[in-house]
Amino acid sequence: MENFMRRALELATLGRGNVSPNPMVGCVIEHQGRIIGEGWHQRYGEAHAERNAIFSIQPQDEHLLPESTAYVTLEPCSHYGKQPPCANLLIEKGIKRVVCCNNDPNPLVAGQGFTTLRAAGIDVETGLLEDQGLQLNARFFTFIEQKRPYIILKWAETTNGFIGTENGQPVKISGDLSHRLVHRWRSEEDAIMVGTTTARNDNPRLNTRLWPGANPIRIVVDRNRSLPSDLHLFDCSQPTIVYHQSEQTHENQHNLTYVVAYSIPELLADLYARNVQSVLVEGGAALLRSFMEIGLWDEMRVFRSDTMLQAGVKAPTVQGELINREKVGDDELSVYKNSPHKE
């Protein structure tokens, strides 16, 4: 059983970066130990995993459905949204059994999918590889249950613990492979955030030019609205939100929105209202620490390189539980989880 669910989890990851604010979902249809169909939710607004799996079945195998099991990473939906209910399709096709990792916390589903399936006489089992399913859709579960985006803090530091120079001059710390990996991460998250100092000193574009994928929403925290208007962040090339505390009114433009927010929780509440499910916070040090001080973060991704600086801006002190460490080119990447949440 676990092998089929692991395959469903693997398929689900193929939707990363394309299905938000929906969860990533994979589905495997199995008959007597053989996979006869499989699919995943490929793009927001398009067919769900169960539908793709069922319609991938070859015509000569369709008669096997009443004796088959559907392994699905998340509870099948039972409501009409952009797609018809997957639970209804499973019933219509006469599937014998459904096995799931997780219940769907979305109030539109929340157990109703399982209730619908059981009422139709389908055998339903839940909780298989539950932890892996929760990890897969950590962004979705955080967004639904905590009513805020999933927060990833990311930075690169020198071997002696500096994140930047004293005078604010841009300095390359991590290697090219790490840089490319960060662009992949950007394509997988809804939004990317920087603070005033990083925006001014680095003049970043915050796009995915080094990786094929969608550009995230750009977010800049510019408390006093002191940043010059000729920065790349204000070029209106992709959706950008500026959070500030200025009393001056600022007229919104195409792809450029100004929002007043007096705290990190207030900022996150606004992003939740805008359906932003995840944010990659790329610095600087003050902004990273502001999330850490109130415990409002979920992952921390830290590159350490062999680069040395004699002086500079000290990197934040890592927190949380180390869950992975690996080499990325000449750099070392460490990933930490914030558990339990300190909200």
UniProtKB/TrEMBL annotation:
Residues 1-125 form the CMP/dCMP-type deaminase domain. Signal peptide: none annotated. InterPro entries: APOBEC/CMP_deaminase_Zn-bd (IPR016192), CMP_dCMP_dom (IPR002125), Cytidine_deaminase-like (IPR016193), DHFR-like_dom_sf (IPR024072), Eubact_RibD (IPR004794), RibDG_C (IPR002734), Riboflavin_Biosynth_HTPR (IPR050765). Gene3D superfamilies: Cytidine Deaminase, domain 2, Dihydrofolate Reductase, subunit A. Converts 2,5-diamino-6-(ribosylamino)-4(3h)-pyrimidinone 5'-phosphate into 5-amino-6-(ribosylamino)-2,4(1h,3h)-pyrimidinedione 5'-phosphate. In the C-terminal section; belongs to the HTP reductase family. This is Riboflavin biosynthesis protein RibD.
